Amino acid sequence: MADRPSKKRVKRVPPPPRHPDQGRVERIHDEREAPQPKPRRRREASFDLSEVEFGAVAPDTARKLAGRLAEAAEAFEAERFADAVKLLGSIERLAPSVAEVLELRGLANYRLGKWRPAIKDLEAFETLVGTVEQHPVLADCHRALGHHGSVEDLWLELGEASPAAELVEEGRIVYAGSLADQGRIRDGIRTLEKAPRAPKKPKLHHLRRWYALADLYERAGDLGRARRLFNEVATLDPTFGDAGQRARSLR
Fold first, then answer.
1. Reduced 3-state DSSP string for 143-160
2. Hey, how many other C-beta atoms are within 10 angstroms of the C-beta on 174?
3. Higher-confidence position of 7 and 209
4. Which residues make Cβ contacts (< 8 Å) with residue 20, sequence separation at least 6?
5. Is 119 within 8 Å of 141 (Cβ atoms)?
6. Full DSSP string of 53-98
7. I need a surface site. Which of 160, 161, 180, 244 has the fewest CB within 10 A?
8. What's the distance, Cα to Cα, between the start and end of the chain in Å?
9. Nearest Cα to 114, choosing from 159, 79, 81?
């Protein structure tokens, strides 16, 4: 599918997928109800709202909608996701099919654990723009709903598209978690183990993969490997979630 004309739009890093031991609808993204908190050390979004196109609306209306979109982005970054959804809905009523609105509302619904609305918006966004950059988030929504076939399809599409390494790693983590949700923990472990070797100075997405792998080692009963990998993550980044605590708990 051809991309629409190039222009600046919301620039962001995808929110981290849910913890690998999760996949049920009743558990929301930020894992506050999970036994172990997810590793998260920073806000995961930054927005460039310049030159957003609102279609055939009057200039005054476009300026108002731009201000409303900026408010929605600010609410998202402050983790006021319900406020962001409300603001974005008011924009869409006047200017439908704006890529930035669809993407941001999809992400806000994702953070609220509203999987189906998130899927609807993010699929519309990807179709409009011609991208796979939200495939990891879409896969995580499908995983939460138990749509494991859809998770696998999205993972395969990511592999074919070969996007940025960070996107591939996020997709890999979700796919491995989906396998584990189905009782295929060893398959999930192999999926993460087969990832490309990390550089000498690992980036955040490498640490996230190692954390997910350590979690699956623990679930498989391989406590020694789990402890060593949790400890490595905590050594490389002491601020990385509860990795250090989990390493100590396995001694």
1. HHCCCHHHHHHHHHHHHH
2. 29
3. 209
4. 173, 176, 177, 180, 188, 212, 215, 216
5. yes
6. ---S--HHHHHHHHHHHHHHHHHHHTT-HHHHHHHHHHHHHHS-S-
7. 160
8. 53
9. 81
Give start and end residues of each alpha helix (H) in 146-203.
Answer: 148-161, 165-181, 185-193
Residues in the chain, total: 251
pLDDT score recorded for residue 189: 97
What digits encode the pLDDT tens for the residues 94-153? Answer: 999 999 999 999 999 999 999 999 999 999 999 999 999 999 999 999 999 999 999 999
Structure-token pair, residue 25: 């609808």
CA pair distance 70, 139, nearest whole angstrom: 27
Tokens of 161: 């598209």
Q: Which amino acid is at 50?
A: S
The secondary structure of residue 12, as a DSSP letter, is B
Q: How far apart are CA 14 and CA 118, in angstroms?
A: 13
- Closest by CA position to 204, among listed 173, 225, 226, 178: 173
What rounded mean pLDDT belongs to the chain?
A: 83
- Residue 188 makes CB contacts below 8 A (sequence gap 6+) with 20, 176, 177, 178, 179, 180, 216
CB contact at 8 A, 113 and 83: no
Alpha-carbon distance of 38 to 43, in angstroms, equals: 13
Side chain identity at residue 207, one-letter code: L
| Tokens 């099919």 sit on residue | 97
- Say if residue 113 is exposed, middle or buried (CB neighbours under 10 Å; 0-12, 13-18, 19+): middle
